[in-house]
Design a protein that fits this description.
Distance between the termini of chain B: 31 Å
Structural class of chain B: mainly beta
Order of helices and strands of chain B: EEEEEEEEEEE
Number of strands of chain A: 11
Helix content of chain A: under 10%
Largest sheet of chain B: 7 strands, mixed
Number of strands of chain B: 11
Order of helices and strands of chain A: EEEEEEEEEEE
Oligomer: heterodimer
Helix content of chain B: under 10%
Number of helices of chain A: 0
Strand content of chain B: over 45%
Number of helices of chain B: 0
Structural class of chain A: mainly beta
Radius of gyration of chain B: 13 Å
């Protein structure tokens, strides 16, 4: 079963606008990660936010984490056509003697030129 | 470039056949993870190895197996292939086995079973 669920499933915006994606998860976490996937390609790590952090920035990306609501958001400011991709949140889940990333279903972002 | 290498990039095979997917992790990473991505199931964790030892199993079918070799490269073996096994198979690597840092993904192997 999915640990994280992104919302919305699809988002279409104009170049220059901001894009906000949300992620909800079910169990306690020590960090939450966001990844981007261009069509049919590998996933690229964007940002990691730890459970004791509330907000983190990286370039045009801003991630927030609310552990009380078990939710996170990814904001991409001043979007570009090159930002068109699927965005996934991922949380480490314990299994066996280790942890693995469990991914949500993703948000498909389309930025129109 | 993530530093994780997967081969082959594409594979087309018939039902009932067996294939082997190969992954070389990023230099210095001891953990290797295999994921399957299909349209209806999303990204599903299959199996994890750390420094040659299996650490966790996810939704991996009994027809599938994997191993990590002393040089840390890993292979995923898929046998008695069915049409439903058609998917993108990703390998990822990380420094530790507890996901305290990010994972690095390869470009994937697209498997088509006909």
């Amino acid at each position: 079963s999915q640990q994280g669920e992104e919302d919305p499933q699809a988002l279409s915006i104009q170049e220059g606008e901001n894009a906000t994606m949300n992620c909800s998860y079910k169990t306690s976490i020590n960090n939450l990660q966001w990844y981007r996937q261009n069509s049919g390609r590998g996933l690229v790590h964007l940002i990691l936010i730890r459970s004791n952090e509330r907000e983190k920035h990286s370039g045009r990306l801003r991630v927030t984490l609310d552990t009380s609501k078990k939710s996170s958001s990814l904001l991409i400011t001043a979007s570009r056509a090159a930002d068109t991709a699927s965005y996934f949140c991922a949380t480490p889940i314990s299994s066996g003697s280790a942890r693995q990333l469990t991914f949500g279903s993703g948000t498909q972002l389309t930025v129109l030129p | 470039d993530s530093g994780v290498t997967q081969t082959p990039k594409h594979l087309i095979t018939a039902t009932g056949q067996r294939v082997t997917l190969r992954c070389s992790p990023r230099s210095g990473d001891l953990s290797v993870y295999w994921y399957q991505q299909s349209l209806d199931q999303g990204l599903q964790f299959l199996i994890q190895y750390y420094n040659g030892e299996e650490r966790a199993k996810g939704n991996i079918l009994e027809r599938f197996s994997a191993q990590q070799f002393p040089d840390l490269h890993s292979e995923l073996n898929l046998s008695s292939l069915e049409l439903g096994d058609s998917a993108l198979y990703f390998c990822a690597s990380s420094v530790d086995s507890f996901m305290n840092t990010e994972a690095f993904f390869g470009q994937g192997t697209r498997l088509t079973v006909v």
